[in-house]
Amino acid sequence: MTEERKDWEKVVAFHGHSCPGLAVGFRAARIALRELAAERDVDEELVAVVENDACGVDAVQVLTGCTFGKGNLWFRDYGKHVFTFFCRNSGRGVRIAVKGSLWREDDPDFQELREKVFSGTAEPEEKERFRRLQEERTRHILTMPEGEFCTVQAVQEEIPPKAKIFRSLTCAFCGEQVAEHRARWREGRPACIPCAQEPEKGCKC
User: Fold this and answer.
1) What is the pLDDT tens value at each position of the chain, 205 positions in all?
2) What would you report as the CA-atom Rg of the chain, rounded to the nearest whole angstrom?
3) φ, ψ (nearest 5 deg) of residue 177
4) H or E segment to which residue 194 belongs
5) Fold of 3-155
6) What is the DSSP letter of 104?
């Protein structure tokens, strides 16, 4: 079994299933590691900035070792299939932008079928057809020429800072711990964000 196949199986096992979105993140992460001449992150040597919260981000976490818990996975809520990676050791960065043709937005039949499946109104044969189409798209994404899949650009942006460790405070209203930099003040006392909001919108306290 090839190393690439092993990596793909790890990614699928982590995510729970194979799908086109996962394949997108898989290819983006592999390209980034190649371009940066880097290996899987151990302690924030790599940083990933993702501009979506779709399936592909799981592949990025598995292959690059950039995770929310370690503080070297940054989420920018732009809704774009764009991934930027940095290597602290070399100071280099690479931006990978997936091309729009992958998503079949210009295929009305596929879009209609997709809507039926996700709305729960698809017939069994329609579900099976959608499954086969998704498998076909996944294989295509994994094997298509890189130039058709994405654009790859070196970037000179400032590398995001390393993760900071903050002390915890106790919310005066619900009694739960909250990171100091996320705490708010209500009635002159520290409060978590839900408790700092209007009572009907916040905690039941």
Assistant:
1) 688 999 999 999 999 999 999 999 999 999 999 999 999 999 999 999 999 999 999 999 999 999 999 999 999 999 999 999 999 999 999 999 999 877 666 778 888 898 999 999 989 999 999 999 999 999 999 999 999 999 999 998 889 988 888 899 999 999 999 999 999 999 999 999 999 985 555 445 4
2) 21
3) -75, 145
4) helix 193-196
5) 60s Ribosomal Protein L30; Chain: A; (3.30.1330)
6) -
Instruction: Identify the sign of the CA torsion 51, 57, 62, 67.
Output: positive
Angle, vertex CA 83, rays to CA 30 and CA 143, nearest 5: 40
Least Cα distance to 49 among 32, 37, 35, 34 occurs for 32
CA distance 49 to 39: 17
Rounded to two decimals, the pTM is 0.84
* Adjacent-strand bridge partners of 86: 47, 93
* Of the options 3.30.420.40, 3.30.565.10, 3.30.60.20, 3.90.226.10, the CATH number for the domain spanning 164-205: 3.30.60.20
Q: Judging by beta carbons within 10 Å of its beta carbon (0-12, 13-18, 19+), is residue 174 exposed, middle or buried?
A: middle
For 39, which DSSP code? -
β-bridge pairing 46-50 and 73-75: parallel
**Could you give the CA distance from residue 135 to residue 18 in angstroms, rounded to a whole number?**
8
